[in-house]
Each structure stands twice: as C-alpha cells, then as structure tokens.
Amino acid sequence: MKRKTRIFLAVLAIVCVVGAIVFAQQRGFGGRRGRRQIDLTERNGVPEWDVDPAFKKDVFTFVRIKYSSGSGYGRWGGDKWLTDFPDSDLNFSYRLQQLTSMKVNPMPVRVKLTDKEMFDYPFIYMLEVATLVFEDEEIEPLRRHLSNGGFLMVDDFWGERAWDIWAGELAKALPSAQYPIVDLPIEHELFHALYDVKDAPQIPSLGFWLGTGGGTSERLMDSRVVHVRAVLDDHQRIMVLMTHNTDFGDAFEREGDSRAYFERFAGAGYAFGVNTLLYGMTH
Fold first, then answer.
1. pTM for the whole structure
2. Domain that holds residue 226
3. What share of the chain in percent tops pLDDT 70?
C-alpha cells in the first residue's frame, strides 16, 4: 500500500469516526431508519462551514439531477432521484472539504436537465436510473453539457435489466455508434487521481448488508460483478462515469447509521468518490 493511501485511511479514520459518532448520537447506530418526510433544507447533523463571500461562486457544488421516472426494474417510477438524499450529498460535501484543499459549498443543489443553471455546474450526479425516462426536452441540454466539458456520474443501479434500461436512455443523448460505452481499466488515472484504488468496491445498502449477514450483491447472481464504465469524448476525456452493481451513495449517506457498515465501506467509498470528483473537475 502506497504512503498516500495509508495517510488517507488514517486521516479518514480520525475525521470520520468523530463525525460518525456525532451523527450516531442523533440517529442511533444500528439499523435502517424508518422512512421520513424529506426536508430539503435540513442538514441532519452535518456541520456547516463558511464560504468566503468574495468568492461565493468559486467553490465546488455537489449537484443532483432531478429526472422523470417510468416503469423500471422491480418497481414503478416515483422520485427515485431522491434516493439517499439529503445525507449522501451533505456528507460527501463535508468530507470533501475536510480531506482535500478544495473550497466546497456546504449546500448541495438539485437541478433539472432543463434548468439553465445546470450549465453553471461542471459535475452532475444521477442514481437509481433503472426507472429513468428522458423527456424529449432533456436530451439536448444533457448532450450539450457533456460535450462542452461537463462530467456526469451515474451510481446505484443493479442487474442487467437496469443496465439495459439506462444504456438505452443514455443513447438518446449520446448515440452508442459515436459514443460507445467502455469498461474503465483499473490502470486508468481516475483510480489514482489522489488515492490508489485497487478495485471498485461493491457497496450494498445498509438494510441489505444487515439483512443478509454481510452480503453485497443486491441482485444476487445478476449483480455479482461491479462494473465501472465510461463514455469518452474525442480526446479520451470521461464524459459519463457509471458505477453499476454498487452504491457509493449509501457509503456516504449511511456513515452515521452503523459503525460496522461505516468501518467496512466508508474508506473505500470516499477514496473512490474523491478520485472521481477530482478527475471530473480537472479534465
């Protein structure tokens, strides 16, 4: 293990354990929380920090995309874009400003693909895309955003049917004949942007992990292999990064809900997440 990886794990253990204990006092380490009404302004115990007012717009902002849902794998539509919200977005933003020198907005935002402000943000995030259906008016803005240097991370969708649904929708914006989807080799610089990630971890939901006594493949044999796939532009820059059969969002969201889950998945989740963000913002 390289020195900077060891340093990262040590630092993460210090800063995240303190944070996890604070969150646990408010939520209780243990099982999955009951379903709650989502308050779009509540920070749920995640500390806030100041942003220099003179450079208010010169900070990284975590952006979650709101999308339309149709029928999908094993469920019917709904607001799947809200999965893991707001804790995942808040925790990742908090850890990012702790673990790097980046200036980070403490308030993540949510935008639609049709919102003109989407173009203010180079890094955008989507998840649970097995139920996604792109509206006609969403396709051109997404294509333009990615072609102009934007970076999309897609996370938390499991099984082959979910993959086929997403690949079909993505092809509406980035036709596969021109923009083929490729598997990203572990040698790619994204895996080593700051921390050396040896492989892509399979991160299940907390409920699945506890309910199965440590299982990680949420669709069993249909999702046993983690795929990190990408769409590249003409200069070999990643436009779209897709983490299939794993759930990095839960590694961020659930860090305060179970000490065992935190210790098993948080380090790998944050290492990959930070690498992805740094790659996306510097290419």
1. 0.86
2. 3-28+59-282
3. 82
